[in-house]
Amino acid sequence: MEDRLGRKITYLRVSVTERCNLRCLYCRPESDSGAGDGDCGNSNGGLGAAALDNESFLRIIAAAAALGVKKICLTGGEPLVYPDLAALVVGIR
């Protein structure tokens, strides 16, 4: 797989959740009214609007691996608040 400049794509960034409990100053807008909720403005209690289950993540990652992807970067919000992160990592390995 190549990007539009002809460079080989060997990594994939996967955002596992939009949620974050870190409340970093550089990331939060001043107008955020979620002060004290520990959820950085994503206070819907879920994993974010577009969260997938592990099976879906693993299918996407397997397809990318078949196209030559060698590295996976799990990102998000804060990936450590994704409840099935350990199982996802085991599935990726």
End-to-end gap: 21 Å
Estimate the global geometry from the Cα principal axes. Answer: flat
List the helices and strands in order.
Answer: EHEH
Number of helices: 2
Percent helix, as a range, is: 10-25%
Structural write-up:
The radius of gyration is 16 Å and the shape is flat. The mean pLDDT is about 80. It has a domain at about 10-20 and about 45-90. α1 runs parallel beside α2 (about 85-90). The protein has a two-stranded parallel sheet. It has two helices and two strands. It has helices spanning about 55-65, 85-90; strands at about 10-15, 70-75. The protein starts with 10 loop residues before the first strand and ends with a helix. With about 90 residues, the protein is an alpha+beta fold. Helices cover about 25% and strands about 15% of the residues.
Task: Describe the protein's topology.
Blueprint (H helix, E strand, L loop, with lengths): L10 E7 L36 H13 L4 E6 L8 H8 L1
Parallel strand pairs: 1-2
Task: Using brief descriptors, characterize the structure shown.
flat, 2 helices, 2 strands
Please summarize what this structure is.
By secondary structure, this protein is an alpha+beta fold. The protein contains 2 helices and 2 strands, in the order βαβα. It has a domain at 11-20 and 47-92.
